[in-house]
Specification:
This protein has 276 residues and is of the alpha/beta class. It is built from eight helices and twelve strands. The termini are far apart.
Length: 276
């Protein structure tokens, strides 16, 4: 019998794809975890029935959430990743030289362990990279307790339900502001401009209320709802729309480039409406 996975994207829309085999299923303290081998998208991590990352398109998400803020800051040395239990964002951060501190905070030890075991391709060098300090802790608590220490904060969180819910609030963005150095910036994945319009508007309202610079950008990520995904940046000083021409990747990327960096902030009018 054929096996299929279905993600409910909203009350009226499902996304379904064929599964070759189940690699792992289990339940942690926080969420249900599945690693599947799918027929078209390769390996897939699913948390609480929501697709998180797949072999097919993970590089787009991870390069776009990490490299856009990393190439906005002129000299990022102290980095925090909240969430990102699959290790893909940490892989992208650690492509940079001159890092002094890479703090990684995920609430769920089981997700991190399962990804290390079953999705090692997401970050083959994770164990070797001594600069990365993993803390198993709620990102909200970590943020509340951190003051003025990070150049770049990457919020690679799950959807605003379950353990990720409080990561989408005004209070959290205020704590992120306090955790950043005086010229720091943060980025967060902020869902689909088709299905989550009110959420995105609310996030931008909150971020704009706190940060002098608030920007929205998009990337095409086929396995995420609607295929078009938003990211939001709040910055104290550097505008991601005018990155420094002198800073370009000296490592391999499959999606990110200085041209894509500029282009991703050019929004179609129906997305621009969310920013106004
Ligand atoms: N790219 C993904 C997406 O948008 O579908 C996000 C992937 S990543 C696997 C999400 C991670 O956020 C998970 O590892 C989860 O454990 C973590 N997470 C959720 N809530 C969190 C919180 N409050 N603090 C820290 N990590 C959290």
């Amino acid at each position: 019998m054929e096996l299929w996975i279905t993600e409910q994207q909203n009350e009226d829309v499902n996304f379904t794809c064929k599964v070759n085999s189940t690699i792992y299923t289990g339940k942690s303290e926080f969420q249900e975890i599945a690693v599947l081998d799918t027929a078209y998208f390769g390996k897939m991590l699913v948390l609480d029935d929501v697709i998180q990352t797949t072999t097919f398109d993970q590089y787009i998400y991870h390069e776009m959430i990490v490299q856009v803020p990393m190439f906005t800051h002129p000299d990022p040395k102290s980095i925090l990743v909240i969430g990102g239990g699959d290790g893909g964002s940490i892989r992208e951060v650690t492509k940079h030289k001159n890092l002094e501190k890479v703090q990684w905070v995920d609430i769920d030890k089981t997700v991190v362990e399962i990804c290390k075991t079953y999705l090692p391709e997401w970050n083959p060098d994770l164990e070797k990279n001594k600069i990365v300090d993993l803390k198993i802790e709620d990102g909200i608590k970590h943020m509340r307790e951190s003051k003025g220490i990070y150049d770049v904060i990457i919020v690679d969180c799950s959807d605003p339900i379950g353990p990720g819910e409080q990561l989408f609030t005004h209070a959290f963005y205020q704590d992120v502001y306090s955790a950043l150095k005086e010229d720091g910036l943060f980025v967060q994945q902020t869902e689909s401009p088709f299905y989550h319009r009110e959420l995105i508007k609310g996030i931008l309202r909150d971020v704009r209320d706190i940060y002098p610079i608030a920007r929205l950008y998009t990337a095409n990520i086929p396995t995420y709802p609607s295929g078009l995904h938003c990211f939001t940046i709040g910055s104290k000083k550097y505008d991601p729309m005018t990155p420094l021409a002198s800073r370009t990747p000296d490592f391999e990327t499959l999606c990110y480039s200085p041209e894509i960096h500029k282009a991703c902030f050019v929004l179609p009018k129906y997305v621009k409406e969310l920013v106004l």
